[in-house]
Amino acid sequence: MIEGFRFSKYDPDDNRTPFDKLFDLFKEVLLHTSGEVAEALSWMNELDRQYGLTTDDYGMGDFIEDLKKKGYLKEGEDQELQMTPKTEQNIRKDALDQIFGKLKKGKQGNHSTRFGGQGDETGHDKRPYEFGDPPESISLTDSIRNAQVNHGAGEFRLEEGDLEVNEREYRTQTSTVLMIDISHSMILYGEDRITPAKKVALALAEMLRIKYPKDTLDVIVFGNDAWQIQVKDIPYLQVGPYHTNTVAGLELAMDLLRRRKNPNKQIFMITDGKPTCLKEGDGYYKNSMGLDRKIINKTLGLAAQCRRLHIPVTTFMVATDSWLQDFVKEFTETNGGRAFYTGLKGLGDLVFADYERNRTRKLR
């Protein structure tokens, strides 16, 4: 049984073509099936049987053929249908629209800080001239006006005290690592938490591509271990039979950020549970019962290390258990970052609100 879709009566103002209507649903289903096209098409056929999605004029077979013709599906070496990069791009755009809304086109690749000085772009503020200000920053119009006010219009005289300069704004770049928990608890108790997490990651990647193309985004997943994935791999993510090795995730995130030369760095961590695993030699130390101090202390040690390196960690805990919140509170206080306790519905809004706030950090 498929949950999470609501079907309504025909809307006469909906001008989408039959293909577009089916394609919107198909992209959503692909996220739930982790990019398995055959399974997604099976779901589509079942939905069509239950809810009458197609008509005599446009059937599911027509839809599949159009997906191929339009370049959304291709046949792999094993003759099975696969998503194309064009489909992956459309899924990212949909995630961005659903979570963050339509972005207005604006200046790309730069972020203002609160601090003035020589920078990339002239601001609207003015200030008195100070020794060392470059000549090109002097506002001639305002300086001449000041001279006339200060000395009268009879004999023009321009002194240093009359000069005003255009305040310039620093523009910063930020390197972000997004950590996604793929432990078994992300689908435990019948709750699908991994699909919203994937949507957030896709939307963040698309926002950076459109609005902040000079920023960097690295995506990693963590279970028993942690490893890096590409943005194009996000729709295909699946939860494994894993514990939660938060330490491995943080270590990899710090290693990736260490290689980035941007002055501003941050980590976003989406998880639904406590750390339960450590790598020890060739094996693992695991404890899923409560909060194991051996694991917690190692995790808090990395939180403190991130703080010393000026890397804030923003944690999005998809759980409401009080004892889990106590752990996140301790982790956040140790790191000096932020934490949100959220249900699945509001996860995306919180991620992007915090990403925007973290734009304005002092350059170090």
Structure in words:
With 364 residues, the protein is an alpha/beta fold. It has three domains: 18-83; 113-171, no CATH class; 173-357, Rossmann fold (3-Layer(aba) Sandwich). Helices cover 39% and strands 21% of the residues. It is built from ten helices and twelve strands. Strands 7-6-5-8-11-12 form a six-stranded mixed β-sheet, sandwiched between helices. A two-stranded antiparallel ribbon has the order 1-2. A two-stranded antiparallel ribbon has the order 3-4. α9 (322-335) links the parallel β11 and β12 (338-341). α1 crosses α2 (37-51).
Topology:
Layout: H1 18-32, H2 37-51, H3 60-69, E1 73-75, E2 81-83, H4 85-100, E3 111-128, H5 140-151, E4 164-172, E5 174-181, H6 194-211, E6 216-222, E7 226-229, H7 246-259, E8 264-271, E9 277-280, E10 283-286, H8 293-308, E11 313-317, H9 322-335, E12 338-341, H10 347-357
Parallel strand pairs: 5-6, 5-8, 8-11, 11-12
Antiparallel strand pairs: 1-2, 3-4, 6-7, 9-10
Helix pairs in contact: 1-2, 1-4, 4-6, 6-10, 7-8, 8-9
